[in-house]
From TrEMBL:
Keywords: Cytoplasm, Phosphoprotein, Repeat, Transferase, Ubl conjugation pathway. Its EC number is 2.3.2.26. It is an enzyme of class 2 (transferase). This is HECT-type E3 ubiquitin transferase. It comes from Seriola lalandi dorsalis. The keyword Phosphoprotein applies. PROSITE patterns: HECT. Pathway: Protein modification; protein ubiquitination. GO terms for cellular component: cytoplasm. It is found in: Cytoplasm. Residues 110-430 form the HECT domain. Pfam families: HECT, RCC1_2.
Length: 443
């Protein structure tokens, strides 16, 4: 019987073996030898090294090929039991958006590898110690949604109504009709993959797309009412969705708009505006089709598809209460009452930040039954009135003792506003492990 060790130790069973790759988590370790054998050990009842023999040789060859090529953007590693891809991303301070880094890699994969029920790939962040047991995947999905809607990635644009702040959908986004390069089409296909993965995994995306986009993805016909904006009245040109003045027919800028040709102009302008994003929509549907049966989308309304992909914009406290599981504390404890009172007093924007703090996500599915992971709250023996901590991989919140509800709310607000990203595993283990957990006691 081996004891737990808090510092690195030699693994006698691996002596004499050449190790090609190693993956280290907070509780388990996987190693890949040059002979194609996988060994695993960690937090179990015996502490022994285990050899995995059910790995296909073709998969291992692919791993070795990826390493031999010294691929900069990604490293494919083996994931025991469930086939998953692991991406090595550049540090978050890099000028290359996470969306762009992952898009380039995912679209070239066999779609069969992405049709998983919980996580389609695994993420490694270069320079950061976070080990992806699900939380890093969720967190990077949230960051990619933010990149899309902040202009870091130029696939989306604000609706024309948003510039004048009049009419409907002023807070929504359209597909960028000017994004037509080959790289853009790859990224739009990846956006389609993201949407389909959100449907399969039941983990919604925080995207605010205009109804126009959802209608087109459902193959619903568009009409004049979908535009709801004025068009210039001097020649055969019109403003595109991104504000460019474009001819609606060949040489339209040289054709004066007259009373006699007004009907033709309206028809041409509507035809252009209603189809200016067809290429982008087709690329998204192509990406979705690799994961889900796209023809079935025509059976949905635009609102239904949006709800499947994006879930609920409001974070419901009542839904969280239905999902909660208490550990080392009871529902009747005063601390729990203070916690729920604080969450109910938060604005929805603050509850979104809280959800990301504890899960890496910014939205909940519309159906509570689609949430398979329990929201866990643990009372920890820490200094009074300290800051709460969380583990996104496990949808887990750790609450220290507090002397009042106001202090709990203030500490929780501070944490969700100042800790949007996942911390390093080693730091968290050092600071969030109770002394008794790290002692050399027998397992």
């Amino acid at each position: 019987m081996l004891k737990n060790k808090s510092c690195p130790q030699v693994v006698p069973s691996l002596e004499g073996l050449f190790i090609e790759d190693i993956a280290v988590g907070c509780e388990h370790v996987l190693t890949l030898s040059s002979t194609g054998d996988v060994y695993a050990w960690g937090c179990n009842s015996e502490g022994q090294v285990t050899k995995c023999s059910n790995i296909k040789l073709c998969t291992l060859k692919f791993v070795f090929t990826a390493h031999q090529k010294h691929c900069i953007d990604c490293t494919v590693v083996l994931y025991v039991c469930v086939p998953a891809w692991s991406w090595t991303l550049e540090p978050r301070r890099s000028s290359k958006p996470i969306f762009v880094q992952i898009a380039k890699q995912v679209v070239s994969l066999n779609p069969l590898e992405l049709r998983l029920p919980s996580r389609a790939w695994k993420v490694k962040l270069v320079g950061e110690g976070a080990d992806d047991a699900g939380g890093v995947f969720d967190d990077t999905i949230t960051e990619m949604c933010q990149e899309l809607q902040s202009g870091v990635v130029d696939l989306l644009i604000h609706t024309p109504n948003s510039f004048a702040d009049v009419g409907s959908n002023t807070d929504r986004f359209l597909l960028n009709p000017a994004a037509l390069s080959e790289d853009h089409m790859v990224q739009f296909r990846f956006l389609g993959i993201l949407m389909a993965v959100a449907i399969r995994t039941k983990k919604p995306l925080d995207l605010h797309l205009a109804p126009w986009v959802w209608k087109q993805l459902c193959s619903m016909p568009l009409g004049g009412p979908d535009l709801e904006e004025m068009i210039p009245l001097d020649s055969f040109v019109a403003h595109s969705a991104d504000g460019r003045l474009v001819p609606v027919v060949s040489g339209g800028q040289n054709i004066s708009l007259t009373f006699a040709n007004r009907t033709e102009y309206v028809e041409r302008a509507l035809e252009y505006r209603l189809h200016e994003m067809d290429s982008q929509v087709a690329a998204i549907r192509e990406g979705m089709s690799t994961i889900i049966p796209v023809p079935l989308l025509s059976l949905l309304t635009a609102q239904q598809l949006e709800q499947l992909v994006c879930g609920l914009p409001e974070v419901s406290v009542e839904m969280l209460k239905k999902l909660v599981r208490y550990r080392d504390i009871t529902e009747s404890h005063q601390l729990i009452g203070w916690f729920w009172q604080s969450l109910e007093e938060f604005t929805n924007e603050e509850r979104v930040l809280f959800l990301r703090f504890v899960s890496g996500r910014s939205r909940l599915p519309s159906n509570p039954a689609d949430i398979t992971q329990k929201f866990q709250i643990i009372k920890v023996d820490r200094p009074v009135n300290g800051l709460p901590t969380a583990q996104t991989c496990f949808f887990l919140l750790r609450l220290p003792p507090y002397t009042s509800q106001a202090i709990l709310a203030e500490r929780l607000r501070y944490s969700i506003h100042n800790c949007p990203s996942i911390d390093m595993d080693n730091y968290m283990l050092t600071h969030n492990t109770d002394p008794a957990d790290s002692s050399d006691t027998e397992d």
